[in-house]
Design brief:
It is a single chain. The protein is built from no helices and eleven strands. By secondary structure, it is mostly beta strands. Strands 2, 4, 5, 6, 9, 10 and 11 form a seven-stranded mixed sheet that branches. It is globular and about 40 Å long. The mean pLDDT is about 95.
């Protein structure tokens, strides 16, 4: 069982930056593909970025491409989401998710493909 804990959310002005972290329990973090999702009030949860188990493959939603960067440190069991040039429309609860993928697997894009979820961290971008 993998437990995920997000941190790093907060209130920031438009144009600012935040770095989210998600730390996982367990010894097999390096075999899990990871994803960052977000859910704004009244909207469905959507994928923001995904990364494969070794960190060599990444995916970004079009709305964040060029502004957000997903990365991971398999020694520290942590995945990061660096968010730059934040916009008010980035305001949401951000969740990290994990799914076992093997050591040479790819990443996952669908909500239903992820088995493990964190509790979420609020990001609020003021205009």
């Amino acid at each position: 069982q993998v437990q995920l804990v997000e941190s790093g959310g907060g209130l920031v002005q438009a144009g600012g930056s935040l770095r989210l972290s998600c730390t996982a329990s367990g010894r097999t973090f390096s075999s899990y593909a990871m994803g960052w999702f977000r859910q704004a009030r009244g909207k469905e949860r959507e994928l923001v970025a995904a990364i494969n188990s070794r960190g060599g493959l990444t995916y970004y939603a079009g709305s964040v491409k060029g502004r957000f960067t997903i990365s991971r440190d398999n020694v520290k069991n942590t995945v990061f989401l660096q968010m730059n040039s934040l916009k008010p429309e980035d305001t949401a609860v951000y969740y990290c998710a994990a799914q076992s993928a093997g050591y040479s697997g790819g990443y996952f894009l669908g909500i239903s493909e992820y088995e493990h979820w964190g509790q979420g961290t609020q990001v609020t971008v003021s205009s």
